[in-house]
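Researcher: Next sequence.
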Amino acid sequence: MKKEKPQKVHFISLGCPKNLIDSEVMAGLLNKSGRRLTQSADDADIVIVNTCGFIDAAKEESLEEILTLAQKKKSSRQELKIVVAGCLAQRYGKELLAEIAEVDLFIGTGEVGNIVQHIKNLDNADFRRQGIISKPKFLMNYHHPRIIPAKAASAYIKISDGCSNCCTYCAIPSIRGRARSRMPKDILREAELLAVRGVKEIIIIGQDTTAYGKDLKSQPRLAQLLKEMARIRGIRWIRLLYAHPAHISNDLMEVIAEENKICSYIDLPIQHIDDHILKTMNRRVTAAQIKAVITQARNIIPELALRTSFIVGFPGETQKRFEKLLNFVRETKFDHLGVFTYSREEGTTAANIKTQIPKIEKDRRHDLIMTEQIAISHSINNSLIGTMQEVIIEEKSDRPDFDLIGRSRRQAPEIDGITYLKGTNAKISSIIKCKIISADDYDLFGEII
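Model: Next structure:
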């Protein structure tokens, strides 16, 4: 009897690293079930698009990917199965089911752990197109297999899912559910398994990493978790993202300063500095508290690299309130900074505020802050010329004057700049020392020592 070929599945993962982990878990579960993962949609029997549905730009990107696949199926690949998963499906799955006939299945964020059964159901003779949007309660654990690149030097660990902060501009609680923390032992076991696979950098993520453990009876502390993670053999760097300024604590800062493995790097999304805007956003923190946290962090952690993000054009952001934010950027001099223009999201409290800002003005304010940040970033990078930096090697460079591309302890993947390196005596995924010889607005250039 002729053995059937395994189904070939291709993943398109969009959005944030938290979504990427869901894709890695679904890919791991399908691979374990006997499906074969493929790098090309053209070669696949099933394409799974794990979507983002957070803000307008992300929704547009997700819809563009879905419609491109739908057109491919309609014109030349009628047998192709299309599955739309993730945040956009959780938020709009029922509506999209009626609008995009080429998609066979929509599944929400709560269905990550059930992906094998869903794919199996696609082959049933009586299968009908449907949207399965359950309550977003899924929380991964270390037993879930993850597909990450074989030679990956870095990997994310999601210590929690969901969010209970309920910021007025944000739909995440309705998409991802309330905050749910993993047990420390479970997280540490996953870190150990990643270390065995050769991962050298662990990047801690969650919707709000500094709210970690508050929902658990044992009330574990993030500071203690990081301290124990630093004891794991093979792990060289630990990096913290998504720390809320209202929740970051002195004991966490002290652990970052004390533990050599923990990068002197904090991602601290601030969103705004005007008290009226902060209150309207329901950020539960004041401008004075934010400034005190930044001062404390820089006092406690030597050579701290501080990243933040802001929202401009939030309803009620007068010119005076915007200028307060712009002056704060000039004075504080963040190492890395991202700016979002406010996206009016249906179902959020802020969407009903009458004092909305025109798009052209939101874009102008975005460009003003980023122009200011370019000069700040360039100055900070220039101050690093002549210093010694540890760099994790990620890939070969396509520039003729530099051989390799990596990241320093000061640079998180995707969101910050990179470090170009001269010298071929270093392997991909290794951590080396280099001397910084030049810099530009966002990137560093070094020679391997």
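Model: The mean pLDDT is 94. DSSP finds twelve helices and 19 strands in the chain.
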